[in-house]
Amino acid sequence: MTYQSFNPATGTLLKKFEELTDTQLEAKLAKAAECFLTWKATSYDARAAIIAKAGVLLHERAEELAETMTLEMGKRIDEARGEVEFSARIMAYYATNAETFLADTPLYPEQGEGHMESSPIGVIFGVEPWNFPYYQLARVAGPHLMAGNTLVVKHAGCVPQCAIAFEKILTDAGAPEGLYTNLMISHDQSDAVVADPRIKGVALTGSVAAGRSIAAAAGKALKPSSMELGGADAFIVLKDADMEHALKWAVWGRMYNTGQTCCAAKRFIIAEEVADQFTTDFQAALGTLEAGDPLDSATTLGPLSSEQALLDLLEQVDVAVKHGAKVLMGGKRLNRPGSYMQPTILTDVTPDNPAFRTEFFGPVAMIFRVKDEAAAVALANDSDFGLGGSVFTGDEAAGRRVASAVETGMMFINNISWTDAELPFGGIKDSGYGRELGDMGIQQFVNKKLVRTIKADAPA
Ligand code: NAP
């Protein structure tokens, strides 16, 4: 059974859910398509009343929503509360700004006049991951519903209670039936949904493997898609960086959400002049983290999202070591109940090691030493991924130079890769294509229509 809620801190099964039958799925798709016919003609103000209300409800229910998340996927409770509040802000942001973002834009042809209109295209299918169970849903619901589309969403199998809670937020906010629909469906049913003629666009956030599969299905059906996939972000420290500042962000950037973040700092690329100091201090800081119940605010190291996630990560570390990597610290599961992993640092990862091109989705950092800025950029770019990245330096010009030279969708100077409602989020290469959030996020699934007025006689 795919949709099962396990507490990864204890291994206890909390709840399980049946998948939809094909008949039930058909009824939900029909409702979403029917709802689109009225929703697309609804004013921005009327849409905003519902989406803004959903934001308010997220805020009001933050405590209970955060607890559900912590129980289902192990996020530490303070981080979980922060995620719910951020999701509320995303809904409010699009409720406030959608009309401006989608306003007609004038064009300036040599003759006559013209403009671009933005209009909704239909039912959008979202496929979303467990690592940010509400934020990921808000990232598609806020923009695409405010644009006038309707949404059907397949959430990850391990967070069914979060999926249901988010759908209820929309319903309680006054969403008409079919506006936002949670689908507990199999991968095969998901392929059928992508191919269904009522679906007009597909937004996936997940692994590269899922991206290849869903993007191929969308391509076959000629549907526009956006792919927000994995990352192996570089965390570059130049020799003139403020080391104390960089160290704090290094710990946060690798360990937030127990390392299970697409844009987490994963490859630490350190100038050789400061590499020994950085490595010693980083190891010491990771060594102070205390595993415990993620519902307890005092806990500084939570579990991974599931037992399988832990086993996969341990296997990846083993493969890295077999190919010559050295384990500077950690590398094993913690000797306690639940799916906990020791904070881990790998060094000596050479380009022929599979780990060099791997995304470690958990508390595993790789440290590399480089001789200068150019070598740091070259190493950062020697990756199949291209999501985010960061550079720490005391020289603003060097920061900008590195930010421009690294081949990713996002670069951050003296800070880690992060996200805000206003900032377009997304990557290049195997990290996918398209952008979510910001103005760009709402443009993803709208028809950009040219309308031209010109008074000219047809040629004789
Ligand atoms: P995943 O296994 O790819 O799952 C993501 C979603 O895709 C889940 O809903 C999953 O459903 C579904 N899925 C997977 N294969 C599918 C298929 N063949 N057909 C239909 N649906 C399919 O990824 P994950 O392990 O949950 O999430 C971690 C990955 O997401 C990491 O690589 C991370 O970097 C990436 N991520 C990227 C971003 C970004 O914005 N770029 C943000 C967050 C996470 P089931 O659970 O039912 O398999």
From TrEMBL:
InterPro entries: Ald_DH/histidinol_DH, Ald_DH_C, Ald_DH_N, Aldehyde_DH_dom, ALDH_GabD1-like, GABD/Sad-like. One of its GO terms (molecular function) is aldehyde dehydrogenase [NAD(P)+] activity. The keyword Oxidoreductase applies. It comes from the Bacteria. Residues 3-451 form the Aldehyde dehydrogenase domain. Keywords: NADP, Oxidoreductase. Belongs to the aldehyde dehydrogenase family. PANTHER family: SUCCINATE SEMIALDEHYDE DEHYDROGENASE [NAD(P)+] SAD (PTHR43217), SUCCINATE-SEMIALDEHYDE DEHYDROGENASE [NADP(+)] (PTHR43217:SF2). This is Aldehyde dehydrogenase family protein.
